[in-house]
Amino acid sequence: MPELLTVNGLEKNFKGLKAVNGFSAKLSENQIYGLIGTNGAGKTTVINMLSGVLKPSAGSVFFRGIEITGERPDKIAKLGILRTYQNLRLFKKVSVLQNVMIGAQIDKSYSNIEAILGMTRFRQEERKLEEKALNMLELMGIEDYAKERADSLPYGAQRKLEIARILAASPKLLLLDEPAAGLNPQESLELVQRLKKIREEFELAILLIEHDMKVVMSLCEYIYAMAAGQIIAEGEPKVIREDPKVIEAYLGRAKKDA
Ligand SMILES: Nc1ncnc2c1ncn2[C@@H]1O[C@H](COP(=O)(O)OP(=O)(O)OP(=O)(O)O)[C@@H](O)[C@H]1O
């Protein structure tokens, strides 16, 4: 399988604290990966470094062979690595449809001058953008909310909107930080089905941080387990489930409860 992302020995120090202490991974196209671990294990810090929000203290990241270590978030997004945040970051007072249209602007092909002058090419692009945005809303099952204000949506629908928004930017790799947080079991199950469909339709890769083990085990083909800034185990779900280090550090309770 062609390699999409290669991460070598990524580290992040925060004033003496080694939040991430040597994270290495190889992600292939069209695969779904999980990143699990106890609170404070360093998972979000890894995603922050991969998406350019934080500059690594050491290590390197290559995306389709191009080095992107320490690049700015907008450049990384333009290459096709798009992320969501643990806490929703929507444009609250703007319509659902416009939120997604804004997300799609990353790969816009018209200039700002054309946009200001309302030129034909801009209007055509705008229509295409709207069509694409509606398509993404349908994929996430929230098209009925298109004209509503983003902050008027139920929480679960807002989470879906975040994903619809980054999908509109034509990603090759989605980085999802706890996409099932705050969802009820039924909504989580639906999210799993939608993400599987999205992966098939767009042939993209997904790396997701998630505490809900049902979501992780049913969605991910390969899992990285972290504790105290390091990878303590990696492999297919059945390997991770049985790994003594993972059970001790993290899964013990979740496994008993499953
Ligand atoms: N900007 C920062 N400045 C200082 N310390 C930080 C910063 N960001 C994270 N940390 C610390 O780094 C460690 C790893 O945090 P991180 O958020 O990556 O963990 P996590 O695995 O995502 O945890 P959770 O599951 O609770 O979200 C924690 O000890 C955290 O307090």
TrEMBL record:
GO cellular-component term (any): plasma membrane
Source organism superkingdom: Bacteria
Keywords: ATP-binding, Nucleotide-binding, Transport
All copies of domain ABC transporter, residue ranges: 5-253
SMART domains xrefs: AAA (SM00382)
PROSITE patterns tied to this protein: ABC_TRANSPORTER_2 (PS50893)
MF annotations from Gene Ontology: ATP binding; ATP hydrolysis activity; L-isoleucine transmembrane transporter activity; L-phenylalanine transmembrane transporter activity; L-valine transmembrane transporter activity
GO biological process terms on file: D-alanine transmembrane transport; L-alanine transport; L-isoleucine import across plasma membrane; L-valine import across plasma membrane
InterPro entries (alphabetical): AAA+_ATPase (IPR003593), ABC_AA/LPS_Transport (IPR051120), ABC_transporter-like_ATP-bd (IPR003439), BCA_ABC_TP_C (IPR032823), P-loop_NTPase (IPR027417)
PANTHER family given in the database record: AMINO ACID ABC TRANSPORTER ATP-BINDING PROTEIN, CONSERVED COMPONENT OF ABC TRANSPORTER FOR NATURAL AMINO ACIDS-RELATED
Protein name: ABC transporter ATP-binding protein
